[in-house]
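Weekly structure sync, notes
Attendees: PL (lead), two postdocs, one rotation student
Agenda item 3: pending single-chain targets
PL asked that the sequence for the first pending target be pasted directly into the notes so everyone works from the same version. It is reproduced below exactly as submitted, 500 residues in total.
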Amino acid sequence: MLQPSAEQAPLIAAIDLGSNSFHMVVARTSNGEPRILERLGEKVQLAAGIDEDRQLSEAAMQRGLDCLGRFAQMVNHLPEGAVRVVGTNALREARNRQEFIRRAERILNHKVEVISGREEARLIYLGVSHTFPGMDGRRLVVDIGGGSTEFIIGQHFESQLRESLQMGCVSFTQRFFRDGKITPGSHAKAYTAARLELMSIEHGLRRLGWQQAIGASGTIRAVGLAIKGAGYGNGEVNREGLTWLKHKLFKLGDVEKIDLDGVKPDRRAIFPAGLAILEAIFDALELSDMTHSEGALREGVLYDLLGRHHHEDVRERTLNALVERYHVDLEQAARVETKALEAFDQVAADWDLDPERHRELLGWAARVHEIGLDIAHYHYHKHGAYLLEHSDLPGFSRQDQQQLALLIRGHRRNIPRHKFEELSDDGARLTRLCVLLRFAILFHHIRGPQEAPAVRLKAGENSLHIEFPEGWMERNPLTSADFAQEAEWLKRIDFDLSVR
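Predicted structure, written out during the meeting:
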């Protein structure tokens, strides 16, 4: 996608729809660096509004939408590509997230992306590495959120290991401290649950190792300040301070009685759960201390956005790694991508396709449409779709991955119409992209550098007419047969393909 340059869009913004809080940063770009102009944050506790059926309550949605209404005035006039809005664990979990996303996008006038836990971890590390003093060794970065906790080991600006666990200060409050009482028993249950979660990743983290531990969340900052207030440190989290703080909370016995340095009133209810998770992390990873970084997810989103502006898009690196891993025929992929984008440019206006977002999506799909061949030729389009939907693809949102997977699933044989229709907001346009991808693949069905004719495309609402040079189809019967068969496949979705 062609993104606005720093001169065209000097203001950029990142919005983090967290499970506990929503945050927004607005920055001005200068010499490739963001200069923060505004920071806004509100406790929304979206995760507290998810019931046992994983439905997000209307009250929780409204809290979030009210907050976004206040954010909107600063961003809804900014151009597409200047604002990135990311949703984390609560929106990953909520089955009815699309309802919230639709309403949020109407308010913000920008797309909302739901990112995977490992993508969240990548962005957190990016934020920390750009805002925390540099060092030569590896860093362990921990971010305790409302619904999940991310762990990253990296060096300089590159993360090397990324993990996300289903434990957070809001979700653990709902499970273990719902009544607001703080007892050794409730703390032990929360601590044990966290240790059980950590068992799946602690060996891998410790095997890689680190020289410095950094915390990047409000929970870790609040614990460090509370410990400092008691005289056990200078703002870092340490074992002696954790022990003191735990027994202090036991003595208080109730979240309403928490009155500690650094613990704001709106954090009191979730503070005991965050402390239990942090203590479990210290024990599982044998930490002695942890410093705090102000930079985290939202700053990482800003720097990622800047990378896209300056042609350092991590998504390009991700796709290049994917085609290398699955031994894609690069020359064939390039031929198909070129032809698909040529076709797109001819019909985009008639089909109401976005010249940036949809063009980019089609190019990606063309580049990776054959990754499933590395598994098996039989049903390779289904293998490729599964890989795209379920792999960790740094830089891509879940929506991006689902749409890419659907294009790959539909690029040959039968198009799963019902799956396209489930994407109610963009299903029709995605179907049209799929038709263009199929056209480009058939056009280059005979692999090789042979000269290809120029063709003209004319699009109707549910039709595509392809005009080859006079006599060319008669001289190329295999291509003619391919397109005749393709017309039959497209009839199944009530789409008319004609070739002359």
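Discussion points:
- The first helix runs from residue 58 to 75.
- The chain has a mean pLDDT of 90.
Action: rotation student to compare against the earlier draft before next sync.
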